[in-house]
Structure to design on (282 residues):
């Protein structure tokens, strides 16, 4: 699973480079998230703006990523594309996470 | 051309090893019908969904409708791979997608275990008003299928599951 982590503004910004989080990558996603969230700032922002498709296994892996955080850490989400937002809405998981429209609002991207 | 890995047929007739890619059946001449044969494993699902998406692109559906079909179908195919077959064996799946007026009918047939109680689950919402530790990490599949389809029907014959999902296309 292709995840990139950068620290900025006291936020651990984790960007998903892959376009799909489904049953074939869910376990790898959860494991990568554990590695990337064990270190760095306590506030973690998962940027899903490249992800166009998620299934219930992928959703479960995001929930698991939140549950496996060390005490004192929090996981927010950003950049949900339409089909990903649909899955969060229909399962009501959108009520569980703080969801930001755009990661750039919290962590300005470098210009150029 | 790389040669496909050899497949081994186990005693009960299921194919072991790396499955071949989904094959489009040419038996059905109707251009409105997509017929796919593939192995019921999670590694095949992306390719199958892509084939369905390609097929639906001819009908000029909106992105929202395509997304709804893709999500529900992904859940139904996950269930076949993980529950109907699951474990160490996997077997054949047939998908038939047909546009009938404003409706899309998708019939999935497999030879795996029946649905528990031989009935499609109601797909109820789970309690999310719990401590984070107790949040569910699964059990959303049937909820998504029920929410995204117009109608679901299921028939278990002696050795076959036949699940029909009907979507409204407009």
């Amino acid at each position: 699973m292709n995840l990139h982590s950068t620290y900025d503004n006291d936020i651990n910004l984790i960007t998903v480079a892959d376009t799909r989080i489904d049953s074939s990558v869910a376990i790898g996603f959860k494991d990568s998230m554990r590695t990337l969230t064990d270190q760095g700032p306590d506030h973690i922002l998962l940027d899903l703006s490249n992800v166009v498709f998620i299934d219930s296994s992928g959703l479960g892996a995001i929930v698991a990523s939140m549950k496996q955080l060390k005490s004192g850490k929090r996981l927010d989400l950003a950049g949900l594309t339409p089909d990903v937002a649909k899955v969060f809405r229909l399962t009501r998981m959108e009520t569980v996470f703080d969801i930001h429209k755009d990661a750039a609002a919290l962590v300005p991207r470098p210009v150029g | 051309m790389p040669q496909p890995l050899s497949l081994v047929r186990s005693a009960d007739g299921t194919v072991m090893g790396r499955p071949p890619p989904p094959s489009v059946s040419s038996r059905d001449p109707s251009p409105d019908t997509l017929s796919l044969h593939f192995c019921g494993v999670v590694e095949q699902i992306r390719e199958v969904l892509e084939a369905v998406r390609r097929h639906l692109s001819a009908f000029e559906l909106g992105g929202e409708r395509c997304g709804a079909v893709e999500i529900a179908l992904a859940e139904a195919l996950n269930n076949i791979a993980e529950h109907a077959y699951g474990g160490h064996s996997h077997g054949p799946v047939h998908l038939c997608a047909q546009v009938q007026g404003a409706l899309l009918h998708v019939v999935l047939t497999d030879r795996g275990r029946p649905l528990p109680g031989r009935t499609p689950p109601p797909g109820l919402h789970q309690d999310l008003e719990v401590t984070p530790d107790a949040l569910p990490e699964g059990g959303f599949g049937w909820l998504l299928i029920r929410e995204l389809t117009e109608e679901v029907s299921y028939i278990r014959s002696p050795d076959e599951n036949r699940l029909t999902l009907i979507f409204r296309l407009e």
